[in-house]
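Hi, here's the filled form for the chain we discussed.

Project: internal
Contact: R.S.
Residues: 327
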Amino acid sequence: MRKSNRGYLLIILACFLWGASPTISYIALNEIPLFYFVSLRFLIGSLTLFLIFWKKIKEISLQNLKACIFTAIFLFSGFALGAYGYRYVIPMKAAFLMSFDTVLIPILYAFLFKKKIKNKEIISALIAFIGLFLINFDGLNLELNWGTAILLLAALCYAGQAIAVAKAVTWAEPGAVAAIQLGLAGLFSLIPAVSFEQIPKEVSSSGAILTVVSGIFCAGVAYYLQAKGQKYINPVKTGVLFSTTPLFGMIISGLVLGNTMSLFAVAGSVVIIFAIINIYLDFFGRVGIARGSKNKDSEECDCECNIMQSSQEVESIEPVGISSLKR
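And the returned structure, exactly as it came back:
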């Protein structure tokens, strides 16, 4: 399998696990305060990866450790700002605002690394954003306010996390990057948990099991898949693939909890799928719209910033705040 194809598959599998997270977390969040749950989730995921990649983690350099710290800061900041912003914005609008990372990633990537973004990547990011808008459409009123600004900043942090991971895996083993990232994010999450929340006195067996499952799979496995996948594809394509997370979330909640999808949500899902097809096949480039593309992707690996080949929502079911943990 080509490395770029492997990257697509790994990121989509990560998005599937993140999409399952709200449904898996629903019962646990009725018993465990939000930040305590998130801290446990991250720490369990980190411990899982530490047990597997401890040899690689022991070998990590100071430079790599600094890169991992940045990924953890972006991840925690995105979640914390999102959780806070949800207090001031209705969930449907908040979910849409948090989706801005899909279009912010290409902007940050081009600005920070002076990279020219391919036409098909720009088009696919815009198509995916339209799909996300349709999924979250419910008469959205998009006036700017304090909550809107906070959620846009949260989306910027999530975009920064994707780019920071791409940079980190250039130098370090993806499993080590994910383990350190989750461990630090889990420790950061303890700060608001201890400061503002009460320690849960009693947790049911089902709540405990689901917390462990969420930690191992929706955190540990998913973030490892993200880091591994980003060794093979660039952050712009990764951002487009991230748009499948709410799509998987709706499908899983429908199957497990019986939630139904609106006509707009179905249309948005089709648009997102088309965005994925376009970034892979370059449909617009083939019909002559993206004139700058010569369709050489089948022969080269698209990972301009993060590969050195030689060294290589469901609103109806979620307590307020859990959607801020997009990934």
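Let me know if anything looks off before we file it.
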